[in-house]
Amino acid sequence: xxxxxxxxxxxxxxxxxxxxxxxxxxxxxxxxxxxxxxxxxxxxxxxxxxxxxxxxxxxxxxxxxxxxxxxxxxxxxxxxxxxxxxxxxxxxxxxxxxxxxxxxxxxxxxxxxxxxxxxxxxxxxxxxxxxxxxxxxxxxxxxxxxxxxxxxxxxxxxxxxxxxxxxxxxxxxxxxxxxxxxxxxxxxxxxxxxxxxxxxxxxxxxxxxxxxxxxxxxxxxxxxxxxxxxx
Length: 231
Hints:
- By secondary structure, this protein is an alpha/beta fold.
- It has one domain (about 5-230): Rossmann fold (3-Layer(aba) Sandwich).
- Helix content is about 35%, strand content about 25%.
- The chain contains 6 helices and 10 strands; from the N terminus they run βαβββαββββαβαβαα.
- It has helices at about 15-20, 50-65, 125-135, 145-155, 190-195, 200-230, and strands at about 5-10, 25-30, 35-40, 40-45, 65-80, 90-95, 100-105, 115-120, 140, 160-165.
- It has a 5-stranded mixed β-barrel.
- Helix 1 packs across helix 6.
């Protein structure tokens, strides 16, 4: 991408989203739950779900050394029926649904479907995905990209958003809000027990797990492509 000064910083929500890529990388932990993986010309930061945690992760990564760009990465839900699980969406615009702000990423080579991505405050179900597609022509919905874009703008850094589709437009996300910690993580044991007690959740949770695995593998490949372009 023509930039050699500093590392490319990827900002994800959860370690699970990037685990296969960063295996064996140097780990650096922050005091507020931030976790960075550093290898060569890349840093991958995560600190939990949501805008506030994304900013913490990005700030921590930037404190470790100079960056040449910030890239929001991770899982996203499809807002269009034509977009399938595992597809990579590279935002041509990121829209903050709360404020209406629009951020325009800077990517020099296409590595996925270029289309609008909308940032929301909570996981989106079928009806919300449909509304976002109608209101914003959104291809995907997620929870962190606008916050990363805003920080990149403040730091005068190029920004991009690369999202892997983990659930399609017709998928209804199980209610998980009460299992999310203050640090933006998931109380997996408690959620697993809740699912075990409610058979109606078994199928959607299994579908969500399968979609997440496929999306993660596609995301790792896209991130490797970006780092090869940086070198």
